[in-house]
Write a structure and sequence with these properties.
The protein has 168 residues and is an alpha+beta fold. It is globular, with a radius of gyration of 21 Å. The chain has a single domain, classed as at5g01610, DUF538 DOMAIN (Roll). The chain is built from three helices and nine strands; from the N terminus they run H-H-H-E-E-E-E-E-E-E-E-E. The longest helix is centred in the N-terminal third of the chain and has 14 residues. Keywords: Signal. This is DUF538 domain-containing protein. InterPro entries: At5g01610-like (IPR036758), DUF538 (IPR007493). One of its GO terms (biological process) is negative regulation of gene expression. It comes from Eutrema salsugineum.
């Protein structure tokens, strides 16, 4: 009879272990960055540090999660802020109804509400105006806190004037 508690504990332990299929499925699930690429977006529109995401493939509704909010400056012009949760809808070459991403232009914080890829250009819309950038500027992800100015980053991306100043 003394072996029964050990047997019960062993069985309970086995039921709490993830199955090999679950581990394989988890390992095979795409990262938020590879998911972006599957919709024809470069990884650099999302900073490093996404800890989880969810996607409803039938509607394109997504959420991406960071441990905390994420802010950084880009060389020469902008300051960006990502809330700990960002959301929107994703489809081929288009992110719409975005929430949780802001850009500081001059002295105003504006919500980035849409991102569209047109060939080798990325268009970022804040509603009343938009700005185009070359796709090459988004080939790598910026880092929270330091953007591309981190000690280990050699990138000099986003050096440009402020195209968000003009309206369409």
């Amino acid at each position: 009879m003394s072996g029964v508690p050990i047997l019960i504990a062993s069985v309970l332990f086995l039921f709490h272990l993830p199955s090999p299929l679950a581990v394989a499925a988890e390992a095979d699930s795409p990262t938020a960055y590879s998911l972006l690429q599957s919709y024809n977006f470069p990884v650099g529109i999302l900073p490093k540090g996404v800890v989880a995401y969810d996607l409803d493939t039938s509607t394109g509704k997504f959420h991406a999660y960071f441990n905390d909010s994420c802010s950084f400056s880009l060389v020469g012009s902008y300051k960006l802020n990502y809330k700990s949760t960002i959301s929107g809808y994703i489809s081929e070459n288009k992110l719409t109804q975005l929430s949780g991403v802001k850009v500081k232009v001059l002295f105003l914080w504006l919500n980035i509400v849409e991102v569209t890829r047109n060939g080798d250009k990325m268009e970022f819309s804040v509603g009343i105006t938009s700005a185009d950038f070359a796709i090459q500027e988004f080939l790598e992800s910026p880092q929270c806190g330091c953007g591309f100015e981190c000690k280990d980053s050699k990138s000099e991306m986003f050096e440009r004037n402020s195209p968000f100043v003009s309206s369409y």
